[in-house]
Design brief:
- The protein has 2 domains: about 15-155, Peroxidase, domain 1 (Orthogonal Bundle); about 160-290, Peroxidase, domain 2 (Orthogonal Bundle).
- The longest helix is centred in the first third of the chain and has 15 residues, at about 35-50.
- It is globular, with a radius of gyration of 20 Å.
- Residues about 1-20 have low confidence and may be disordered.
- By secondary structure, the chain is mainly α.
- It has helices spanning about 1-15, 35-50, 55-65, 95-105, 115-130, 160-170, 175-180, 195-200, 215-225, 245-250, 260-265, 270-280, 280-295, and strands spanning about 190, 230-235.
- The protein binds protoporphyrin IX containing FE (HEM) and 2-acetamido-2-deoxy-beta-D-glucopyranose (5 copies).
- One 2-acetamido-2-deoxy-beta-D-glucopyranose (NAG) binds near residues 77, 78 and 312.
Length: about 325
Amino acid sequence: MKIANFSILLLAFFIFPITFAQLRVGFYDNSCPNAETIVQNLVSDEFESDPTITAALLRMHFHDCFVGGCDGSILLNSTDSERFVGPNLSVRGFELIDEIKAELEAQCPSNVSCADIMALATRDSVALAGGPSYNIPTGRRDGLRTNANGVFNLIGPTASVAAFLSFFGDKDMNTLDAVALLGAHTVGVGSCDLFQDRLVNFNGTGLPDPSMDSDLVANLTTICEASENPSTGLDRSTPLTFDNAFFGQIRVRRGVLQLDQRLATDEATSSVVAQYAADNDLFKRQFAIAMVKMGAVDVFTGEDGEIRTNCWAFNNN
Ligand code: HEM
Ligand SMILES: *[C@@H]1O[C@H](CO)[C@@H](O)[C@H](O)[C@H]1NC(C)=O
Ligand SMILES: *[C@@H]1O[C@H](CO)[C@@H](O)[C@H](O)[C@H]1NC(C)=O
Ligand SMILES: *[C@@H]1O[C@H](CO)[C@@H](O)[C@H](O)[C@H]1NC(C)=O
Ligand SMILES: *[C@@H]1O[C@H](CO)[C@@H](O)[C@H](O)[C@H]1NC(C)=O
Ligand SMILES: *[C@@H]1O[C@H](CO)[C@@H](O)[C@H](O)[C@H]1NC(C)=O
């Protein structure tokens, strides 16, 4: 029994990438000293014309990290990529990553990974939207496979708070981290089909979800009837600003997604929600901490993986 366990441990050691102490702030200081500035300038240009890029990058980075690690595999555009699977939902922002990659290849060929570009660009876009500025360790390598089926392991918007906490707990993130990360819904939109049932026929009752403010029910009903494939802000107060208003909104029953609303009342998360709602700086600090943790999930470092030359394809060698 002991021997069997030991070999499982050894096996695990070789199969799974080592995820700690390998990333470091300033990884490109010597090999590509302008890397972070180049990323920041291009993100900043994009943000000026399209401030929704913050939401796009946050969601892309989250999906990448939780499907086979933060390895840039969501960027691959082969037909079997995780990018093209149902629950990819509205992931977008690929063009900006490709544009940044092209500029970095021109300046320091084959040095800066697509996985790092995504982490850095996301960080910069958050700051531009009013969120925290923070250092992010780099040194990620790009993965050598894509895991389309893994997309189905992401939990959905009707998940329970317990499932939500264990989803993040499995990656060593605690309640403070998990709630802060869901606070990313302070920017961005959700499609009506993901919460339509809350407006008209919640849980088969033929009535709206009683946990949703009735003015919001009326507001969302109008918005969702107004166009085809409608979507609308997840933070009903300041959907383009990275702030704690999302937490204030869910505390007054103005959450759009069911899981978002549940955080405000579930006894495991309600006090953290109240703290973030009361203290924007606390939320932003904890968000930065949690993003550094999320950005280190199952990363490839050292000699593992590769540095892609195009983010949309594996290198052919
Ligand atoms: C694990 C729990 C989570 C669930 C169930 C969830 C669910 C969702 C859903 C259903 C949408 C709407 C998508 C659509 O309409 O196509 C959405 C959007 C979004 N999510 Fe999450 N999410 C979770 C965690 C996160 C995390 C950890 C982040 C980032 C740190 C994040 C960032 C975003 C952003 C920024 C949007 C808006 C995207 C846009 O406007 O393009 N989410 N999320
Ligand atoms: C992937 O994207 C590149 C660059 O946009 C494009 O040239 C290529 O045709 C795409 N491949 C597939 C399979 O969509
Ligand atoms: C998401 O997957 C669907 C197929 O299920 C695909 O049609 C769509 O283009 C994908 N979205 C993106 C942004 O690639
Ligand atoms: C990039 O990486 C190569 C080897 O992978 C190295 O020789 C080179 O000095 C690095 N730096 C730049 C700026 O290209
Ligand atoms: C949905 O309805 C079932 C019984 O019809 C009930 O057991 C369950 O708790 C309800 N769920 C919610 C979220 O209200
Ligand atoms: C819905 O509420 C938002 C503010 O949260 C407001 O800007 C918008 O005009 C409202 N739309 C409708 C149709 O009531």
